[in-house]
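We modelled the chain as a single entity of 385 amino acids. Its sequence is:
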Amino acid sequence: MFEYFPGNYIWNLGVVATLNSGGTIDEVDRACRPIRDLAAQGSDVGTEQFMQSWRKVADQVEQQAIEAEKAGHLRTAGQKYLRAGAYLCQAERMLSNSSPLRVPTYRHLLEVMEKSFELIDPRTTRVQIPFEGTTLPAYFTNASTDDRPVPTMIMWNGLDSTKEHMYTSGWPSEMAARGISVLQVDCPGSGEALRLQGLTSRVESEDWAAACVSYLESRPDVRHDRIGLVGWSLGGYYVPRAAAFEKRLALAVAWGANHNWGEVQRKRLEREGENPVPHYWEHVLWVWGSPDIETFIAEAERVNLNGVVDKITCPLLITHGTNDRQINVAYAHQSFEQAVNAPKKDLRLFTPEEGATEHCGLDHLPHVAAYTADWIEDTLRELDA
């Protein structure tokens, strides 16, 4: 993995994720250069300065977008709004959840993203999914023309990402170009659902899977028999769990396996493996709504797929990097081996020689993204046949 900040895994992950999600090397360098010395002090130190440095560049790019829009250069403006959004969403995830910058920054990010949709991607719209008396915020990238029903993938994030990370990765737009719509959802415990609505995560991801499928079934531009589910990072737990119990799903993809996340938490207490974000324990308590680490660790014991994956009866893809420093590749093998009732199952491991070998392939995101898109296309054709 490219290491702008030698030895600081968490900050480096944010850099490569940004560069693989539409960021330019010049702008990322200008955001990172003032904080290089801070990086040597560890990932938890200097996250406010990280935000401020990245925000300075994001604000500059956004101001350029405003000027381009005033001049009538709408594509240029839309592209710059999108890049500003990419920088904001990567920097915001570094903050402590107690930071006063967090919610205002996220609200501004939502505004910037809406501007980019308006100017360069009108097929992507903000939608609300009815869920247990409230809603789950989402973006819908529509591949349909004239309301013709097309296959649709539901896309879920993980412990620390948001629907904005999903969109800026470029994967929803790529799928739409292939004739497949994508519903990008902030599930309980993530993104806007957590930050602005206080919805925390739970073991039973099938609960919000049912809500997502029911929402899509209400749309005339969705093929109701071709709704799939893909999720990255902690989504590698959420997706197989949901696919085991929500039988309306036509296929499922674990973009990074997460067979026994509870076990991973015990190991992290013993400082084994890398954390995904700074202020890690504060972050997981926030996501899961736990009052303390002891309670969280006890609850996390249930976050595993033993006795669950064998209930999956739709096609299943598991991808994983062989050098994933957060979730050991052994967990990918466990999920694959236990999925004994999937009519089709594939395990794709990415190596250092080809890239995409780190967590969720963030070090070479286009590579794992293309493989995943191809597998989905092939599987949909097989189902139709």
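As a brief sanity check on the tokenised model: The first strand starts at residue 124 and ends at 131. The mean pLDDT is 97.
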